[in-house]
Design a protein that fits this description.
- This protein is an alpha/beta fold.
- The protein folds into two domains: about 5-140, Response regulator (Rossmann fold, 3-Layer(aba) Sandwich); about 150-215, Winged helix-like DNA-binding domain superfamily/Winged helix DNA-binding domain (Arc Repressor Mutant, subunit A, Orthogonal Bundle), CATH 1.10.10.10.
- The protein contains nine helices and nine strands.
- The chain has a seven-stranded mixed sheet with strand order 2-1-3-4-5-6-7, sandwiched between helices. The chain has a two-stranded antiparallel ribbon with strand order 8-9.
- The chain is elongated.
- The N and C termini lie far apart (about 40 Å).
C-alpha cells in the first residue's frame, strides 16, 4: 500500500463528521487525523498536526470557515485545504479563491467527486464541484493566452476585489462612488473575458496580473 493521506475535518455538524469518516474508512489510502467542531480549536491545533488534507466547513458559530482559512493558510503551506459546504454562491467561491483554498466542494456531492477533490493536486488551480454536476470541474476556465492590459486604476480595483472587499468597501477605499466601482468592474470583466468577480480573480491569479507573496496580494 502507498502513502496514507491524513485528513482533518472542521465542521460543527457531527453527522457530517460521521458520514465523512464512514466514507474515508472504506478507502485504505485515507486516515482521519483529527476532527474539530469549531474553527477556534482548529486554528489552535491544526498547525501542529499538519494534515495532508483539510475539509473545512463555511458556516460555523463564532468564527466561520473563511476566517479560519485566512488564519491558517500560511501556517499550513503543504496542506490541501478544501472548502466543504452546502453553500455555492459566487461570493462563497470568491472567498475560497482569495483565501487560497485548493478545492471547493458542495455537500451532497457523490463520493466519486469528493475523491477527485481529495486527489487533486495543482499549485495554481482550484478544484470546484457543485452538487448539480456529474463530476468535478476545474474552476479556472481556459482563458485566452496572455494577460490583458489594465490601467493602474483597474489593477488597483482588481487587487482590492481579490482581497475580498465589497463594492462599497472598494469605493470607500478609493474615494469614489459605488456606481463608479460598478462601472469600472463592468469594463474590467469585459477585458478579462469573465462575467463575475470569482472569474476575474481566477484569471488574474492564473495570468500573473496579481500574485500571492507572503500571504498578501502583490
Amino acid at each position: 500500500m502507498g502513502k496514507v493521506t491524513t485528513v482533518s475535518i472542521v465542521d460543527d455538524d457531527l453527522t457530517v463528521h460521521d458520514a465523512l469518516e464512514q466514507q474515508l474508512a472504506r478507502q485504505p489510502k485515507y486516515r482521519i487525523q483529527s476532527r474539530h467542531t469549531d474553527a477556534i480549536s482548529a486554528i489552535d491545533s491544526l498547525p501542529r498536526q499538519s494534515p495532508d488534507i483539510l475539509l473545512l466547513d463555511v458556516r460555523m458559530p463564532r468564527v466561520d470557515g473563511f476566517e479560519c482559512l485566512h488564519q491558517i493558510r500560511d501556517r499550513l503551506p503543504a496542506t490541501r485545504i478544501i472548502i466543504f459546504t452546502a453553500y455555492g454562491s459566487d461570493d462563497v467561491f470568491r472567498h475560497a479563491l482569495t483565501g487560497r483554498a485548493n478545492g471547493f466542494v458542495r455537500k451532497g456531492t457523490t463520493w466519486s467527486n469528493l475523491d477527485q477533490a481529495l486527489d487533486f493536486r495543482s499549485p495554481s488551480r482550484i478544484f470546484e464541484n457543485t452538487a448539480g454536476h456529474a463530476q468535478g470541474l476545474i474552476s479556472h476556465p481556459v482563458f485566452p493566452k496572455g494577460a490583458p492590459t489594465l490601467s493602474p486604476r483597474e489593477l488597483e480595483i482588481l487587487k482590492l476585489l481579490a482581497r475580498d472587499l465589497s463594492n462599497k468597501e472598494i469605493a470607500d477605499r478609493l474615494g469614489i462612488t459605488r456606481q463608479a466601482v460598478a462601472n469600472r468592474l463592468w469594463i474590467l470583466y469585459g477585458k478579462l473575458g469573465v462575467h463575475r468577480a470569482s472569474g476575474a480573480v481566477a484569471r488574474a491569479l492564473t495570468t500573473g496580473l496579481i500574485n500571492w507573496q507572503d500571504g498578501e496580494i502583490k
